[in-house]
Design goal:
417 residues; 6-stranded mixed sheet; 13 strands
């Protein structure tokens, strides 16, 4: 995933590798060492110890060798491993990275296992869809995280707002009321394109669409323009900068000053806010990004991780069994509660219902989406014509020509990337 703040929900102090004895090469018989690459901060030490010890006890012929990887440079490392003859047996990858790895032809097709053993029909779409390429499932959804609205309960109470909004119309009305005096109704930076994507999806549009064998930008579609119009209306109810994103300045730091009623962020920002301003501890609330109607929340970008099995793994059957355990109900429940993640199935949302922030995430995740499933999407994000387009519209330029120019840049990146 490109924005790691969507999945690094819990900051961990250490990383480590659990190593086991080797084995003679050949087949899936006898004692097997299954090498697993997991990303730093994806799991806690305690969770990993629980899983490894339990799995090895239940499967005495298997030793798990878990190696923690850094996100920096991981793309090149995974690509090289997939092309080599000494690949790990399981790799955790960002959900939006699966397509680029599948393009190499070096991933095992897990479609059968997905349908037969893993209940793929229940998976969160924001994890399942990017793991599927040309009708084949290469990525098995592991965990998810997405944006919610974090709000200041005191400022809501000051305006007499007793219930959180359930649809866009009420959200705008409440935000306008909250945007009063020295307080901002919402702090929304001008280039928060992940939040924009959700509004575009709500309108039935997309950032880019596949047209036969090609991809083309779609920001100039009527639906996408409606999404941008809503973004502009919401962004005006605060003092967020029009020419920078949510990291410049960090929106959690802005919220911590106490005069901002709402931000759109992952719940992990709440810990940063409370560290910056301890007076806000216990005064923060969470609700899903509202949708157009009260019967369903708004669409949100789903970040998170999928698990892949390299084609050149020496232990396909054993590797798939480990993946099935990690993606199954028992360990999904443990992982979600331990790490405050959203589990990979909407039917498991209840396991985090006691934690308000994660419960709000889980509700939104049911309508989660991912970025366009093109192997070249990273090229779009590297150049990111969406950001200057948003600034142009917020500063008063005609949305249609600005959107058309941005769409053409997206098309070029997806074609030439």
């Amino acid at each position: 995933m490109k924005n790691r703040h969507l999945v690094c929900i819990v900051a961990l102090a250490s990383s480590f590798a659990l190593t086991g004895c080797g084995m003679l090469p050949g087949g899936d018989e006898g004692k097997q060492t299954i090498t697993v690459w997991l990303m730093k901060d994806s799991v806690s030490d305690d969770f990993l110890h629980r899983f490894v010890s339990t799995y090895e006890k239940q499967n005495p012929s298997v030793t798990l060798d878990v190696k923690i990887q850094e996100w920096t440079g991981i793309g090149e490392k995974v690509t090289a491993a997939l092309a080599g003859d000494n690949a790990p047996d399981i790799i955790e990858v960002g959900n939006t990275q699966v397509a680029q790895y599948a393009e190499s032809g070096n991933l095992r097709d897990l479609t059968l296992e997905s349908v037969r053993d893993l209940g793929s029909e229940e998976w969160l779409p924001g994890l399942a869809q990017p793991g599927s390429v040309d009708g084949a499932q290469f990525g098995i959804p592991w965990y998810a995280a997405n944006r919610v609205v974090i709000y200041n309960k005191d400022l809501f109470a000051l305006q007499g707002i007793k219930q959180t909004p359930k649809n866009r119309e009420q959200w705008l009305a409440d935000t306008e009321a909250l945007n009063h005096g020295d307080n901002q109704g919402i702090y929304l930076s001008g280039q928060d394109w992940y939040s924009l994507a959700g509004f575009i999806w709500d309108e039935g549009g997309d950032l880019a669409v596949e047209n036969g064998a090609d991809w083309q930008g779609e920001l100039d579609s009527p639906a996408a323009l409606r999404g941008m119009a809503f973004y502009k209306q919401l962004q005006s109810l605060g003092n967020g900068p029009k020419d920078s994103d949510e990291a410049k300045p960090p929106q959690a730091d802005v919220f911590a000053k106490g005069d901002v009623a709402q931000i759109i962020s992952t719940p992990s920002s709440a810990k940063i806010i409370e560290q910056e301003n301890p007076d806000l501890k216990g005064r923060l609330g969470f609700f899903p990004v509202p949708g157009k109607t009260a019967d369903k929340p708004g669409a949100v970008f789903t970040g998170g991780s999928d698990l892949i099995v390299p084609e050149n793994s020496d232990h396909h059957s054993a590797a798939v069994a480990v993946v099935e355990a990690l993606a199954g109900k028992k360990w999904q429940t443990d992982l979600a509660r331990t790490m405050s993640y959203v589990p990979n199935k909407a039917s498991l949302a209840g396991v985090v219902e006691r934690e308000a922030s994660t419960a709000a995430m889980a509700k939104g995740a049911a309508r989660g989406r991912a970025t366009p499933n093109s192997p070249q999407w990273a090229e779009v994000e590297a150049k990111n014509p969406i950001k200057p387009y948003m600034t142009a519209v917020l500063e008063g330029q005609d949305p249609k020509p600005a959107a058309k120019a941005a769409s053409e840049s997206i098309t070029a990146a997806l074609t030439d990337g």
